[in-house]
Amino acid sequence: MAYLNDNYLKLKAGYLFPEIGRRVSAFCKANPDAAQRLIRCGIGDVTEPLPPAVVAALHQAVEEMAVRETFKGYGPEQGYEWLRSAIAQHDFRSRGIEVADDEIFVSDGSKCDCGSILDVLGSKNKIAISDPVYPVYVDTNVMAGHTGEANPAGAYAKLVYLPCRPANGFIPEPPKKHVDVIYLCSPNNPTGAVATREQLTAWVNYALANQAIILFDAAYEAYITDPTIPRSIYEIPGARECAIEFRSFSKNGGFTGVRCAFTVVPKTLLAQTKAGERKPLHPLWSRRMTTKFNGVSYLVQRAAAALYTPEGQTQVKGLIEHYLGNAKILRSGARQAGLKVFGGVNAPYIWVRTPKGTTSWQAFDQILNQANVVITPGSGFGSKGEGYFRISAFNSRANAVEVARRLQELKW
Ligand code: MLT
Fold first, then answer.
1. Where are the alpha helices (DSSP H) in 160-196?
2. What are residue 97's phi and psi, to 5 degrees?
3. Ligand 1: residues whose CB is within 6 Å?
4. Pairing relation of β-strands 213-217 and 261-264?
5. Cα-to-centroid distance, 177 and ligand 1 (Å)
6. Does pTM top 0.85 for this prediction?
7. Whose CA is nearest to atom 1 of ligand 1?
8. Atom 8 of ligand 1: nearest residue by CA position
9. Which of 229, 355, 363, 381 shows its CA 20 to 30 Å from the CA of 305?
10. pLDDT per residue over 298-321, tens digit each?
11. DSSP designation for 43
12. Domain 14-43+312-407 belongs to what architecture?
């Protein structure tokens, strides 16, 4: 009989969001009336329609595909040159950050890239992750066999967990011991915290001293309102020698259903072979993309490029302002309900302390039953997320206002 990948059997329960979906479906089935007034603030999925510049670009691209002369088959696996160049120019070089066009790799999502990056990293790395954390970083390492079994609290052997608490502003400090790979996410999912220049500098210095690699997830970069907060790890001197950055069009251009993202792999980033030789990762990632991926569709890349036009930029700004406006309303609603609130200023996520020793899943059930609102239990992001829940600001304005109101009616 063929063998399966035993590592998958180490995974705890289902992936968080399908698990929430399952519980919500069961609730709706049992309570059809409450289901009518259900508001979802669980998964961070955008609700507002695509920017008009994107819609126009999609229409035009479809027309091109309908005509022999402009029809496109396979494109370059790493992305069309015009998109890589628009990204490198607008997101980096225009802000004084050195990134070459061919260091940009266009993909169908940051979640996929965060998992796939493990293909080009060795199996002996000591991996550090924040706690709480976006579950994809953990689960993909479990699947790749980089961990032992999980303990009853859900922590996997061999991973180094970096606790994030109010005391450190939910941004982890570099550990005293050596690690080889560090996942950082700023603005943070789930806590909505942002890493300051000093905090990122400490991490870059740690990575350089330890010859470690930082996997920097900047999917929510567009939500940074504080001008002192770095938008890219490459704003920190030395980061080109130690960091890979993941970016996405999901949460700025509303592309969760369109699918487009990119990863920056600097040519100056090295890692070592088993024999101890130092080699660049860039050609390995390029090889991985050309072998396992056939590129994002022409239509979608045209749509992404439209986000960089002047109209596209204005429309993205409008979307971000909309969701950040929701975050403000939700923050203040939760505060007025007497809850302790974090995040939601430079991020679309609000991180809330559960009151009176309620567990995260108890809070989930209580908010679902009493307010008919879906939130995400903090413990689903790691053991240090226990005692918290996350509210997503991705919603219509009317729903955000209504959720803020219902939070105040909760009886804990
Ligand atoms: C979340 O809710 O944490 C995100 O939507 C997940 C994702 O972007 O994959």
1. none
2. -105, 130
3. 43-45, 111, 189
4. unpaired
5. 30
6. yes
7. 44
8. 44
9. 229
10. 999 999 999 999 999 999 999 999
11. S
12. Alpha-Beta Complex (3.90)
Helix, coil or strand: residue 278: strand
CA distance linking residue 129 with residue 161, whole number of Å = 5
Confidence label for 16 from pLDDT (cuts 50, 70 and 90)? confident
Read off the pLDDT of residues 219-261 as tens digits, 9 standing for 90 and up: 999 999 999 999 999 999 999 999 999 999 999 999 999 999 9
Ligand 1 geometric centre to CA of 210 (Å): 30
DSSP codes joined into one string, 138-158 = HHHHHHTT-S--B-TTSPBTT
Beta strands in 85-200 (DSSP E): 104-107, 127-131, 159-163, 181-185
Pick the CATH number of 55-308 from 3.30.300.70, 3.60.150.10, 3.40.640.10, 3.40.50.300: 3.40.640.10
Residue 193: C-alpha distances to residues 45, 132, 165, 310, 374 (Å): 19, 12, 10, 29, 21
Residues of the chain with CATH 3.90.1150.10: 14-43+312-407
